[in-house]
Amino acid sequence: MPKTQFLDPAELRKPGKIVFEDIPVNAYKKTITQEKKSYSNDDFMRIFRDMTYLREFETMLNSIKTQGGYNGLEHTYPGPAHLSIGQEAAAVGQAYLLTKDDFTFGSHRSHGEILAKALSCIEKLSDKELMKIMEEFLGGKTLKAAQSLYKGSSVKELATYFILYGTVSEIFARETGFHLGLGGSMHAFFLPFGIYPNNAIVGGSAPIATGAALYKKCNLKKGVIVANAGDGSLGCGPVWESFHFAVMDQHKQLWEKGKNGGMPILYHFNNNGYGMGGQTRGETMGYDMLARVGAGMNPEQMHAERIDGFSPLAVIDAYRRKLDILKKGDGPVLLDCVTYRFSGHSTSDANAYREKEELDAWMAADPLITYRADLVKANVAKDADFDTIWETTRDVITKVTRLAADPEKSPYISFVKTPGIVESMMFSNEKVQSFGDRKPEVLAPMKDCSRVKQIAGKERFAYKNGKPVSKIKAYNYRDALFEAVIEKYYEDATLISYGEDVREWGGAFAVYRGLSEVIPYSRLFNSPISEAAIVGTGVGYALCGGRVIVELMYADFMGRAGDEIFNQMAKWQAMSAGILKMPVILRVSVGSKYGAQHSQDWVALPAHIPGLKVCFPATPWEAKGLMTTALNGTDPVVFFESQRLYDVAEEFNEGGVPAESYEIEIGDVNKLRDGGDVTILTIGATLYQAVKAADILKEKHGLSAEIINLHSMVPLNYEKILASVQKTGRVVLASDACARGSFLNDIARNIGELAFDYLDAPPVVVGAQNWITPPFEFDADFFPQESWILDAINEKIVPLQGHVPAVSNYAPVEQLRRAKAGV
Predict the structure, then answer these.
(1) 598 is catalytic
(2) CA dihedral 582, 229, 310, 49 (to 10 degrees)
(3) Which one, 87, 348, 765, 785, has least CB within 10 Å?
(4) What is the architecture of the domain spanning 47-69+83-302+311-351+358-411?
């Protein structure tokens, strides 16, 4: 919404037409003889050699999966094997010009892309660089294994053994794999060569790779990004969202000098004609030729082109031209790379969806046959030379496979010796003040920001001289969040924030208001309404080495980014054996007054998924301290905020909210009131209903309630909770989440088990009704009120003399009726 971009009705309503440029289709026609000006004979032969490594590697996997052995070795492997036999020319051609500074992201079918990129890097790096990488990686375990196989003097040959052995070991789930076998076939990667994670989710790499391109662009890093996917992924929403994110006009029109220009990313679609068994052309898609989709994305049509993926030289030619476009700042680029998989979708695929005639036709055009014949015809080498290459390749693959299959020499990680090994990788729990190696880029000193000046004049506690401070003068919850964020902007040059309407608007609820005065576009920008891309790009940005805050306006919108939150953001630290870090903060607000699709407390969803830290501050003191902790950490945090609380001042912490920076431990709890008769545990805005209930308990019934707010769900330290319950013998747990499936049920169960001997009554959970959220006018009928907490105590814990229940939720008969009705 920049005021500089005027929407002129006269211009927008003018008649005209949209003109499209022709999209090239299989335009490469050069012969080997013509290409001798660009390639030496050794280059031609290395391309062939690399293709043989890819083919034989997957032939080995296929043989083990289908026959229980390979080349005399008996071995079984129960894991997945999505093979790309037939697609080798596309992978080798793609990798040929790429360097370690160019990052590739893959799919579930990316063994070939990993090996091709690695072999390309081995060729380009010096012996000294290669030895340093191998010696330092995982303490040299993988290198030692490679050295046991290769006794020669060539560092590049040793590195070839290293990469092949490390990859097959990872697939076989061995601790000598590239991330201790915890990623496996569909999640393998090797960062020193710029090989970033493959992804088991179809199209899953598109938003992550787009985030990696954002990292390169925002932090002025060398290299480009290649996002690999199959043609079937064009049916996936996150892929299209990634396109929209990558082609945003603001990259060229609004971002500051030095950062303006297109995104350095190439979307490479290995178009083998099938998404599993669905034929994309003629059945499940309507684009006819995949490259056509580029025409709909931006005026440059994403520089889309359809190329022959069965010709490695055609692929290299396309990359030479497209890399030049990216390096000039004119991306993104889309390549429709026509190829074919001779193997099935997986090794259990019976190929029921295609005829043998089709398979035979493609096999006749196999690049390992046709490219070889072309080289012989052009006198690059004799036919016997290719047989020698094949013999060497099979020998190497046999050796590395035999070693990787040996449980003594290539052991599995031991859950007996180290039972907590995966547990220790779920969170990195590190503190990093700044990931940047340069001075943060800002538009003005922090003190010049009008919001900073305004906050400086506010009262940081809700009361002054015993009287409430007016709302306009009180430092509130949104001020607390703003203060933590702006301070980190001036400390960490990599920090960026984005989401829907976060810049001039300041975010839907004004947390960022004022930031645009001092923070440049490249560090604070509006994104498309593309929740999957918002979160997925944040994941990619973080795993490349940056810190990011991404915002979804409402918690309800998490459903639009479910895979990115639950499968990507949550899992990559552990799947990488701790190699990757994930300093992503996902801000989501819990709505109020906006009805069924905008007012849901979904804390239980991320709390259920291992690998995510989850916070929900209820006071300004908690909000600033927790946000500061999250911003100094290296773990993914889902940060809930209640729209009911943005204007709330600090009522509990004596002295108010400190002006200086401070941290609150994620996992701690906040005891806000001492009591001896009953413990009330709260999450979110229900805290304030609990305070009212506690006041009534004291005034009318002579009972003192101890109030503890749970500002962190994951992790959660139970020490103070159990100490309180042991003291009071009674506990009520309250939040605005629907009672069924509430995270509070998990806490109640743990209290029941861990403090059973101290309890005078069972723990009671008070939650919202198990309905859709009705309009605001019915809030008191849906969300917990102070009277509901009193009802729960009266019905389940201790009778309250003279109390008249407001709702019937807590009578056993009513509980059973509602459960039976599903409400």
Answers:
(1) yes
(2) 20
(3) 348
(4) 3-Layer(aba) Sandwich (3.40)
